[in-house]
Amino acid sequence: ARHTGPPDGGWGWMIVAGCFLVTICTRAVTRCISIFFVEFQAYFGQDYARTAWIHSIVDCATMLCAPLGSLISNHVSCQVGIMLGGLLASTGLILSSFATSLEHLYLSLGVLTGLGFALCYSPAIAMVGKYFNKRKALAYGIAMSGSGIGTFILAPVVQLLIEQFSWRGALLILGGFVLNLCVCGALMRPISLKEDCKTAPEFLEQDYAPETEKQDLKRMSICSPLIKLWPHECSCYCSWKEYDFLLMPGFMVLAVSVLFMAYGCSPLFVYLVPYALSVGVSHHQAAFLMSILGVIDIIGNITFGWLTDRRCLKKHRYFCYLFAVGMDGLCCLFLPVLRSFPLLVPFSFTFGYFDGAYVTLIPVMTADVVGTSLLSSALGVVYFLHAIPYLVSPPVAGWLVDTTGSYTASFLLCGFSMIFSSALLCFARLAKKIKRTHLRSLTGDTGMKQHIWTNGAIAYSVTAELDQKDVEFLAVDTNSFSNR
């Protein structure tokens, strides 16, 4: 049945549970790959930079192929995409247990497993956004906490599996565990929302469209599956319509900031355990640091999600996000002076909390910028933008470690990158407010209404620079204008 709006409950909580399991099987497993770092380095006799490519490639493949996951979700089925991704990821982990070289791991653990994770991650997150509106941040907080809970549980378990069955046996067991993604896919029941039911008006006006197909198009969603027998022109229109948010100024700024944020956050999860070992922390204590980071990540997910759903903070989500990113950057700057286990524990608490906070708000902010109907495609692009930083940052950090003989330069670069990401968003918001104030002083509210009424062709370009509260008078069609 078609819903006029997100139900904010009901089967939506099963969607949250499914997304929770997806984040455990994808992001938590990816983080725990860093525990294999020392094992891989010792077994294959390679340096930091070459070994770090394994984690980089799996992260890069997950984000680089995120638009493919969105495409399959939009045009075939979210359920099919997640189940297929689970099979690919499991196959990659199982093949990795038979690896004889780092190059083998690059392909199996990096490319194949990363591709499988990509088909699962962004579609599952987008489904939560379709089922929730009023409690969206809380729902995302619970769903994304799977990454922290999974890290908290899997980090010591993986360390124990390595000790009992070697790294090959541990990868084999993880391959079986990741098959649970197929169960998660079965939970993703599709939902049809009123806002998804947009027709292609320009196409309907064309003479070459048969009348029977015009009538069908009027009843179809703009994101209906491409397996339907659509004319070529309509398919092209729908494909373009799904990605027209790429030209929105707000999305462009968010995209650039994501590049720097992703560069800064990735090396920490690769090098926290090796860094702890290098300053004299035991293997079990180093794994425990990852567990602490994971469990505090959970608290950050849920509490920040709940807090930013409150009326007093809901309109300040933007600044909550940039504050969380900036705090993680500061944590990275202080990490080189923390050279004992008692000092690294507070770091894991602080970094884990704010990491969980901004990870929860990424899909919420994306939805605020592009809307719910385009959320799946937009998240695919946002996670795609993580790909290049995730690919290059761990090897660059490893090269700096090999060159300088310490982790200081690597962690400082990560910290400044995240702080720059936060500062960029702050300056963009200030520039937007200054421009809005300038427009108001020139035209006034009444003048702006008349300007938009008489210049409908440029209405979107004008209002794109303003907040929603400034253009409440703008309606979608002529009837709405006349009624107001």
Automatic annotation (TrEMBL):
GO CC, any one term: basolateral plasma membrane
Reactions catalysed, as given in the entry: guanidinoacetate(in) = guanidinoacetate(out); creatine(in) = creatine(out)
GO biological process: creatine transmembrane transport
Lineage: Eukaryota, Metazoa, Chordata, Craniata, Vertebrata
Protein name: Monocarboxylate transporter 12
Annotated function: Functions as a transporter for creatine and as well for its precursor guanidinoacetate. Transport of creatine and GAA is independent of resting membrane potential and extracellular Na(+), Cl(-), or pH. Contributes to the process of creatine biosynthesis and distribution.
Annotated membrane topology: Multi-pass membrane protein
Domain of life: Eukaryota
Keyword Transport applies: no
Record family assignment: Belongs to the major facilitator superfamily. Monocarboxylate porter (TC 2.A.1.13) family.
Gene designation: Slc16a12
Subcellular location as annotated: Basolateral cell membrane
Residue spans crossing the bilayer: 12-30, 80-99, 105-126, 138-162, 168-188, 251-274, 286-307, 319-338, 344-362, 369-388, 408-431
Keyword annotations of the record: Cell membrane, Membrane, Transmembrane, Transmembrane helix
Alphabetized Pfam families for the sequence: MFS_1 (PF07690)
Signal peptide limits: none
Residue intervals of the Major facilitator superfamily (MFS) profile domain: 11-433
InterPro entries named among the record's database cross-references: MFS, MFS_dom, MFS_trans_sf, Proton-linked_MCT
Primary location group: membrane
Any GO MF annotation of the entry: transmembrane transporter activity
